[in-house]
Amino acid sequence: MVTTMFNKILIANRGEIACRVMRTARSMGISTVAVYSDADANGDHVAMADEAVRIGPAASTESYLKGDVIIEAAKATGAEAIHPGFGFLSENAGFVKAVEDAGLVFIGPGADAIASMGDKITSKNIAEKAGVSTVPGTPDAVEDVNEAARMAEGIGYPVMIKASAGGGGKGMRIAHDEAELRVSMPQAQNEAASSFGDSRVFVEKFVTSPRHIEIQVLADAHGHVIYVGERECSVQRRHQKVFEEAPSPFISDETRAAMGKQAVELAQAVGYRSAGTVEFIVGADQDFYFLEMNTRLQVEHPVTEMVYGLDLVEWMIRIAGGEKLSLKQADIKPKGWAMEARVYAEDPSRNFLPSIGRLERYQEPSGEGVRVDSGIAEGGEISMFYDPMIAKLIGYGKTRGEAIDRLADALDHYVIDGPGHNRQFLRDVCDHPRFREGDITTAFIAEEYPRGYTPSLPEGDQLTAMRGLATLLVAERMRRMMALGGGKAETAYMLYDDAGEVAADITFDGAGASVTLEDQAEDQAVEFGSLPDQSARLYTGFVNGAEAAIQFRRADHHVTLMMGSMRLKVMVLPARAAAAQALMPEASDGAGAAAVLAPMPGLLTRMLVAVGDEVLPGDDIAVIEAMKMENLLKAEAGGTVAEVLAAEGDSLAVDQPIVRFSTGQ
After folding, report:
1. Which of 80, 292, 340, 630 is catalytic?
2. Residue 607 in contact with residue 619, Cβ under 8 Å?
3. Could you give the number of structural domains in the chain?
């Protein structure tokens, strides 16, 4: 094949991965074309590209999954090749063939490799023939739930129900018994059909205490295949990866070599070219089993790039242009450690349900060993139509501990306001002893955060520092207001928070300030080396001589502070107002009928009850689809359905009432 360097490529994707591909293309001197739906008209990837083409309405089925429209956009703009990113059409063999039939180059593997590896059943059969270790399971797709139950009985519970096409956690459920299988299988089929246009599922043994470890491969069109180390992706929730790292803290050099050898052999068996990933499930004894091959660039590819000093996107482009891999297996040597966290728009306190909304304030961290892959900026919108990931944050260091420290510090400096997000949850994981020790499995989040995550209250020095900053924020604002009016600044305050109440005195001293908190045993002094920027929402400076990063949100006399994984809400009042505060009546709880509320924004796809139905705790109420995932809502309390307040097809807002029960009064 003759080597061809492209002049212009189209990126058939959106968000951070579109921006990621564009950055590499720009460094190679290649012009880029973006495509966008109506929801993404003002997206960062649109602004970054040299050209942009509208391809349809917000729904991905009417835009990013319209292969014919994307190909026409490429031809109309003179693009010579198409990079699919990940998701959408990246593993669609029919799209690859259509791209090539149109005289364009697909920056990825060939249609045959995608077809064989993209189907989990076919790929498993090929893997077995290639001598790759595989998990016991059904040899073919299963459509009938009765047949699936019979097969599962033979395999042995627990079992995993998995969509045959696609990945990314869509169309996946774990069943621990037949009853759970009969509920979970239709949900998996519906998700698979919605996400991939293919409702087929298969059933396989679920490995207990599993670790999710994958091998990155690179293959050119000349038969040269290498593996570029492994990534551990065990920290997941709802089968979506949350943390990824390279290398793995678990497997031995011997296991790594054996997994790499099998990954290369599988790639060779299907004539693979481009970047790809062979995923394995690894048991506690380091026995490993083939899960699937992702015939595309992985979301977590940055950790491999940072540890091995490669640009995988650049190699994808060069291989698509016909170049030979100049890398040899002996050249692939890891250096240091990289840890990636996926920053999602979600509500950890509601068991990580997805969130949407506009980014009212957005400031990414930076510094040595910190990388942020994002495709959104302040003012951007997190939409219900697409994946809720805001960005990927990566920390790099010489050791695993240093990489985690860099990641934790970057999370402390990451300012996100608007939709709910998981920043402090990620920060809490960074400090978790099991995570620090590398004692992780795919059940880590379910075991350690079974009810989601709510930030903890600070204690000791952290509580003192946060109370001191709350005092400083309110006092400085009042000092400026008094100065404008010619009045005298307040120096004495009362603080009210969940940790109690405390009196405070403040003294401003040049560029800094000192706050003294009255304590029954001993007064506590908090020295601030500088004054906060009230508009920044992040204080970075010295507190009692030590560097600190404390985020804050202030509304008049109410301040919310976040330090590490801790959160504190404080009301700060001038001492003279404290007496009046004590006379305020306490708020009373309102009375009303019990109701089922939408726990997330989404589409109501099925209403399972009607007016007059008797409902018991735990009964199914409705199904909401959000971010292509089906969510079954259950009743927390029993009663008679008095009102059905939403209809199938309605778009729901978070906390919108769906069903109301009679109170029985």
Report:
1. 292
2. no
3. 5
Q: Would you give the DSSP letter of residue 349? A: G
Cα–Cα distance for residue pair 617/627, rounded to 1 Å: 27
CATH number of the domain enclosing 522: 3.30.700.30
Element (H, E) at 115: helix 111-118
Distance CA 635, CA 431 (A): 35
What does pTM read for this prediction?
A: 0.82
Question: Is there a catalytic annotation at residue 80?
Answer: no
583 pLDDT exceeds 70?
no
Nearest Cα residue to 387 out of 416, 356, 365:
356
Tell me if residue 8 falls in helix, strand or coil.
strand
In this structure, is residue 120 part of a structural domain?
no
Ranges of H-type helices in 350-505? 400-412, 423-431, 433-437, 444-448, 460-485
Classify residue 129: in a domain, yes or no.
no
Query: 469 and 493 share a domain?
Result: yes
Confidence of residue 665 (pLDDT cuts 50, 70, 90): very low
Q: Which domain holds residue 239?
A: 211-448
pLDDT tens for residues 614-639?
A: 888 778 899 888 765 677 888 877 78
Identify the burial level of 283 via C-beta atoms within 10 angstroms of its C-beta, where 0-12 means exposed, 13-18 middle and 19 or more buried: middle
Do 552 and 574 belong to one domain? yes
Distance of CA 534 to the CA centre of its chain: 30
502: Cβ–Cβ under 8 A, 6 or more apart, which residues? 467, 494, 495, 517, 518, 519
* Residue 489 within any structural domain of the chain: yes
Q: Which pLDDT score, from 0 to 100, does residue 2 have? A: 37
Task: Encode pLDDT of 123-178 as tens digits.
Answer: 888 999 999 999 888 888 898 999 999 999 999 899 999 988 866 677 889 999 99
So what's the pLDDT on residue 586? 59
Q: Is 497 in the same domain as 630?
A: no
* CA dist., res. 356 & res. 546, Å (int): 37
In tens, the pLDDT along 90-120 reads: 999 999 999 999 999 999 999 999 999 988 7
The CATH number given to whatever domain includes residue 360 is: 3.30.470.20
Supply 447's token pair. 């075991």
8 Å CB contact between 391 and 20 = no
295 and 154 in a common domain? no
Residue 4 has pLDDT above 70, yes or no: no
| 278: phi then psi, degrees, rounded to nearest 5 | -105, 120
Could you tell me if 217 and 200 lie in one domain? no
